[in-house]
Amino acid sequence: MYFFTADEHYGHFNAIRHSNRPFNTIEEMDDKIIANHNEVVKDNDFVIHLGDFTLKDKFSAMAYINRLNGSNIFLRGSHDKWMDKTYHEIWEKTINGQKIVACHYAMRVWAASHYNSWHIYGHSHGRLKSEGKSYDVGVDNNNFYPVSFDQLKEIMACKPDNINLLKRN
Taking the complete model, does pTM exceed 0.85, yes or no? Predict the structure, then answer.
């Protein structure tokens, strides 16, 4: 099973204030996001983190990663100073016949968007209206839980086609 998430901001107190998160301390926020993650993600699942995992150093990032279930894949966001240049900004995969393009930032068009591929993103903390088959998988937009591929299928089924969809005759 695949899960997607973004903008955890582990160890970042200002995320509580700037995103109006319902936590009093960093520890409370971190523990809740980790508990929610581990509630739904099992050890054999894959989790794609679409950036802003933590502003802290690599040692601190590894301490958070070691508390998370699943195989975790990380994309670079705007607050990921712990990542070196080997981390990518875009992840593309076809799952059960559905192409998905993941990036920390929202895009107007993306790879195969003209064929109704899906785009998932973070960065906006639930404040940006999605267009077509795109969706903010950030924790602030999803009750501090990662979003499963099955949940994405349900969400995307209710969304309009991408604006640049090629009409076939």
Answer: yes
Q: What is the CATH number of the domain that holds 106?
A: 3.60.21.10
Q: State the residue range of the domain holding 95.
A: 2-157
Closest of 146, 119, 109, 164 to residue 1, by C-alpha: 146
Listed as ranges, residues in the chain with pLDDT below 50 are none
* Long-range CB contacts (within 8 A, 24+) of 37-41: 37/5, 37/68, 37/69, 37/70, 37/145, 37/146, 38/67, 38/68, 38/69, 39/145, 40/3, 40/145, 40/146, 40/148, 41/3, 41/68, 41/69, 41/70, 41/146
Q: How many domains is the chain partitioned into structurally?
A: 1
Inside any domain, residue 13: yes
Alpha-carbon span 82 to 65, nearest angstrom: 12
| 53 C-beta neighbours (distance < 10 Å), count | 28
